[in-house]
Amino acid sequence: MLYYLFEYLDKSHIMGAGVFKYISFRASLAGILGLLIALIAGKGIIRWLQMKQIGESIRDLGLEGQLQKKGTPTMGGIIIILSIIIPTLLFAKLNNAYVILMLVSTVWMGVIGAIDDYIKVFKKNKEGMKATTKLIGQLFLGAILAVAIDYTHSQAHLDLTTNLPITKNLLNYSDLIPGAHNAWYIYVPVIIFIVMAVTNAVNLTDGIDGLASGTTAIVGIGLVVLAYAAGNIKLASYLNIIYVPNSGEVVIFLAAVIGACLGFLWYNGFPAQVFMGDTGSMALGGAIAAVAIIIKMELMIPILCGVFFAESLSVLLQVSYFKYTKKKYGEGKRIFLMSPLHHHFQKKNIPESKITLRFWLVTIMLVLATIAMLKLR
To answer: Which residues fall within 8 angstroms of residue 244, CB to CB, at 6 or more apart?
Structure first.
């Protein structure tokens, strides 16, 4: 909103108003405001959650210090969502289709997560929303994103292609199935799968204090670099990546995400005063997926979001191997001491704060590796 005010002031020859034209300036303000909103509003929201007795119900998994967290306020993702939406609305161009899609993805998944949290807290159902219902909600969002992004990309004369890691060659979605002639029928299912995979992966990662919020902030910094490069025609040409016109506004949204996660981390770091719950983890997953798809970097996700991927893969492997061994030998066996992966390390009696820090360091390395791959191309 403020962009249009300062655009008017600039046309009226008000000194200094033209600075709002620069994405870097608006992104800086969005990040700072997101951080401040999380810090300032967070305290009040946490107090409100405590008053409403919206506390985490803990299942005894035999993890050290686990039961001490019982009653800690959950649904703190409300703080994150507000800290993303307000700066984006203030500093981004609201006539940009990508901005609208990112906000819709964040709110959509946030609402699904909030319903899940509501069922767990108030209905006393530890399982929360039915898995099929949750997946249907993710499927609908994926379909909407696929169709809307395909439309906006086609308006910019972009084909249904995407960037590949390392190699400078591009992937046309029709190449995924030999003999396929219409890439659109392949693109939509792939995008739906990516949305579902990323949102669930972030959700699984949110299991110990500060892990999901800190990891998302680091991933967000990596996405800022990718988004800025994709939205700058000179950089995109130099790096041999697809130039996505008007995608520079994505940087402003990402800056708000980073600021929101860092501000939330103030309260969510060990020992946590509040948990983001599915409200926050699902919203962040939706935001990451939407950004990666918009800037045509969705195939970079397994590297960039390697920690999220590993957490999700650990659950998949654990469940599959348990079922396989139970069917074959009559007794289920496990690969990990417990899944998701961070619980495996907790079972090894590694302190929670150390696990979080190490996962952050791994994420930093993966982000740097992803950026390095741009140059290798």
So the answer is: 153, 156, 158, 230, 231, 236, 294, 295, 296
Q: How far is CA 204 from CA 80, 188, 212, 251, in A?
A: 18, 24, 9, 26
Rounded alpha-carbon distances, angstroms, from residue 264 to 15, 224, 318, 374: 36, 19, 31, 31
Rounded to the nearest 5°, which phi and psi values hold at 171? -105, 125
Which amino acid, one-letter code, is at 267? Answer: Y
Cβ neighbourhood burial of 287 (10 Å; 0-12, 13-18, 19+): buried
Q: Degrees (nearest 5) of the Cα angle 183, 301, 188?
A: 25
- Tokens 């289920």, located at residue: 332
| Angle at the Cα of 249 from the Cα atoms of 266 and 284, rounded to 5 degrees | 40
Q: What is the DSSP letter of 176?
A: G
| Reported pTM | 0.93
> How far is CA 208 from its chain centroid?
17
| Residue 170: φ, ψ to 5° | -100, 155
> What pLDDT digit, counting tens, does each position of 264-299 carry?
999 999 889 999 999 999 999 999 999 999 999 999
CA distance 254 to 310: 23
Closest by CA position to 209, among listed 68, 86, 113, 105? 68
Instruction: Return the closest-CA partner of residue 292 out of 134, 84, 102.
Output: 102
Closest to 81 in 3D by CA, of 108, 119, 118, 101: 108
Under a CB-based contact definition with an 8 Å cutoff, are residues 102 and 152 in contact?
no
Angle, CA of 317, 318 and 320, to the nearest 5°? 65
Burial 304-316 (b: 16+ CB within 10 A, else e): bbbbbbbbbbbbe
- Burial environment of residue 354 by CB neighbours within 10 A (0 to 12, 13 to 18, 19 or more): exposed
Are the CB atoms for 93 and 249 separated by under 8 Å? yes
Per-residue pLDDT tens over the stretch 42-61: 999 999 988 877 766 655 55
